Amino acid sequence: MTEPASNLSDATRTALVVGASGITGTALVDQLLDEGWEVLALSRGGSARGGATGVAANLREVDSLRAALAEHRPTHVFFTAWQRQDTEAENIAVNGGMVRDLLAALAHAPLQHVALVTGLKHYLGPFEAYAQGKVPDTPFHEEEPRLETPNFYYAQEDELFAAAERQGFTWSVHRSHTVIGYAVGNAMNMGLTIAVAATLSNELDLPFVFPGSEAQWNGLTDMTDAGLLAEQMVWASTDPAGADEAFNIVDGDVFRWRWMWPRLAAHLGVDPARVRGPEGDPQPFEEQLTPYEGEWAAIAERHGLAEADITRLASWWHTDADLGRPMEVVTDMSKSREAGFLGYRRTERAFTELFDRYRAERLIPAAS
């Protein structure tokens, strides 16, 4: 293996953030810039915030990747992208292939470390077999064996391991729970989805109904703040204790949605009389709120919001899937802490600070 990244000077460190416009990618770009890294921000559009260099590439086109990366020589890669397909077989082919092709396109680069984001479907199974059959007991631990069900997370890991062996870099895998953070146009954005649901409730006098299961409402759970995930990825990429390891990453607190839901509602200005828990079967946001999506353009105009297309803000299906799980989901962080990563977030504050940022960016109405 190559020398641990922690022995490199800051001046030699160039990070390539793959999926730079997503929730995790946005947080990583901010974190790396704050720490003085040179940052290459790869996305389909190639846009980048001040201080980062935008790289435009299509992860599913080998020639596009090779051309876009030919002149760049990153020392570290942070891979945060995925594309949902109709079947898990397609997920494996597409998402495993993106990791393989991206790293192959960097065969010329002096790679020291590659960090890959996956998630708790490593323990729970893919969408089409989610939480079916035998799954590990909670809290989830990194040493649990893989499930027998095919899973694109496993395919991504295997491509990472093979490239590390071939190209001589160290790696880390970061298994997050639901990630909350700032992004627009993201397909897996619970924070903004809840804020949009609350806005519809406020504007249209609708009940603010928890869309998930009674098991999620009453059971313990945890979440992952995007900033904390970014911190762990950078730590693992620059500390020898993070080399060639998989780590869970959650905020460090636990909560019950029956406690959290009314608190988030209050911060979003929802009348307490309209706040509801589950009543029998789940009431998914997709069923509750899709009929009212056409009202968003008028709401945006009335409040001078920056985005009139609700489909770029709310991902009903993803929030419904996470909150509809018929089981408790809690994640163990002992391995990461023993290795030296001691970062922490309070999840309620992560949500409320995110809501405040969305207000400041005029994506939801200002507090009344």
Automatic annotation (TrEMBL):
It comes from the Bacteria. CDD domains: 5beta-POR_like_SDR_a. Residues 74-365 form the PRISE-like Rossmann-fold domain. Signal peptide: none annotated. Pfam families: PRISE. Transmembrane segments: none annotated. SUPFAM superfamilies: NAD(P)-binding Rossmann-fold domains (SSF51735). This is Nucleoside-diphosphate-sugar epimerase. It comes from Microlunatus sagamiharensis.
